[in-house]
Write a sequence for this structure.
């Protein structure tokens, strides 16, 4: 990932209240820190979001895609990993793909973000998929991720969010 990627949507330029409400529906609390403060539970450091238990930490300069990615990890992990969560979400490669797809679904729930903006920001930040762009992956190569989300009750058979954590 590229912590210096310019132009990605940050919390300061988004609707943090709507994001907070979306995450609360999954039992996750968004804690907004002061500018420049260290971010507890951040795997990547810098301005990347951090996870500890049911707390997701971010600063005004944290990219929204980072918040959604870490939130998607929380939703996708099993209850045992969620109970011990501190910084490293863990999981398989397939779960990571499901996390990336889920962050697109979550973005679509936020009028200040949307799927299209998140696709652009993921590419700008340096997410890497074998078909090149995030859009190509999501539209042509993410069936395994969609199947994983449905198999774990995070989406229904049509691919719509259920509002549930991983079963």
């Amino acid at each position: 990932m590229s912590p210096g990627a310019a132009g990605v949507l940050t919390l300061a330029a988004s609707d943090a209240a709507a994001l907070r409400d979306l995450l609360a529906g999954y039992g996750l609390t968004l804690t907004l820190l002061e500018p420049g403060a260290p971010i507890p539970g951040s795997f990547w450091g810098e301005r990347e979001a951090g996870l500890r238990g049911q707390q997701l930490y971010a600063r005004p300069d944290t990219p929204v895609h980072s918040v959604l990615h870490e939130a998607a990890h929380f939703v996708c992990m099993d209850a045992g990993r969620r109970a011990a969560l501190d910084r490293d979400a863990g999981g398989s490669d397939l779960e990571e793909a499901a996390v990336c797809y889920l962050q697109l679904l979550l973005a679509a729930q936020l009028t200040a973000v949307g799927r299209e903006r998140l696709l652009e920001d993921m590419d700008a930040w340096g997410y890497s998929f074998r078909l090149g762009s995030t859009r190509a992956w999501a539209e042509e190569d993410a069936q395994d991720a969609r199947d994983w989300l449905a198999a774990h009750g995070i989406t229904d058979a049509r691919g719509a969010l259920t509002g549930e954590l991983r079963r």
